[in-house]
Amino acid sequence: MKLIDLHAHTTASDGTFTPAELVEYAAKKGLAAVAITDHDTAAGAVQASELGEKYGVEVVPGIEISAEYLGYGIHILGYFIDPAAPAMTRVLDWVIQERKRRNSQIIELMRADGVEVSAVGLAERFPGAVIGRPHLAAALVENGLCGSVQEGFSRYLNVGKKYYLPRTYLPLETAFECIRLSGGKAVFAHPLQYRMGERELLTLTGRLVDVGCVGMECLYSGYTAGQSGYLRDIAGRFGLCVTGGSDFHGSRKARIDLGSGMGDLAVGYEVLEELRRR
Ligand code: AMP
Ligand code: FE
Ligand code: FE
Ligand code: ZN
Question: How many CA atoms lie within 13 A of 6 on its CB side?
């Protein structure tokens, strides 16, 4: 069976593999295709696309953007997007500005406590990356406030903790519209991560279908066969295609491996063929 992975991050966002390293790793893992889905940027996807041929891996350009729904930050994956489409660049520029605003406020809070961190310093330490909480957590580790990025989140950066500040998410319609207008196909990412009840999940799914969603990420790192079956059933009821990916972040989420997730993930090539037909 030809295996693929439709959800992976690079150093362009909060992954630890460069785009080139990721494509090389996908080849080493024997994957037929890999989608680069960085948060709020397609820069890594563009770089990776040029390397697919060299490594014999099909590279699908993608993106992961967050949108607001009843106070939740819902993650939307966009596949086959044209990163240069004005509809996409305009929206991403706004998102990056909003992130910068939030980052500088978090940095102020940290500096007030004597943490040595600055926007310029982070930009030098993580060149070309969309800076967010994972990078701020790394700064906390480097300042000795915690032992790991994971601990940085649980002690300081998760919702309700000292250095957590919300960022303004895109309206749902805007997120779907920019994917559609840039020629992409939108997929509902990791539906069980929001910890919604069934009724709420069904309502959200209906809403996403209304605004242009074509697929649901039913196969995901850590989802049991039962959970994936449950999601497949919902996807079927709403006419969505089934997709899957690991959400690989390199050592930043060390338990998750490319292609195989936490060990038992397996996404067949036919998933990509079906997504392409949508
Ligand atoms: P932000 O978009 O700046 O709010 O940061 C959220 C990102 O941080 C998510 O997309 C995750 O990839 C990452 N993240 C969330 N929780 C953790 C954690 N406990 N450890 C490492 N990364 C995390
Ligand atoms: Fe991430
Ligand atoms: Fe996500
Ligand atoms: Zn992701």
Answer: 31
Is residue 133 within 6 Å of ligand 1 at its C-beta? Answer: yes
Tens digit of pLDDT for each residue in 198-243?
A: 999 999 999 999 999 999 999 999 999 999 999 999 999 999 999 9
Do the domain assignments include residue 112?
Answer: no
Q: Is the beta carbon of 153 within 6 A of some atom in ligand 1?
A: yes
CA of 135 to the centre of ligand 1 (A): 9
Q: pTM (2 decimals)?
A: 0.96
Amino acid at 2: K
Domain that includes residue 182, residue range:
3-90+168-277
CATH number for 230: 3.20.20.140
Q: What is the pLDDT of residues 106-131, one digit of tens each?
A: 999 999 999 999 999 999 999 999 99
Domain count within the chain = 1
Q: How far is the CA of 44 from the centre of ligand 2 (A)?
A: 14
Residue 158 placed within a domain:
no
Q: Please indicate, yes or no, if residue 41 is contained in any of the structural domains.
A: yes
Write out the DSSP string of 24-62: HHHHHTT-SEEEE--BT--HHHHHHHTTHHHHT-EEEEE
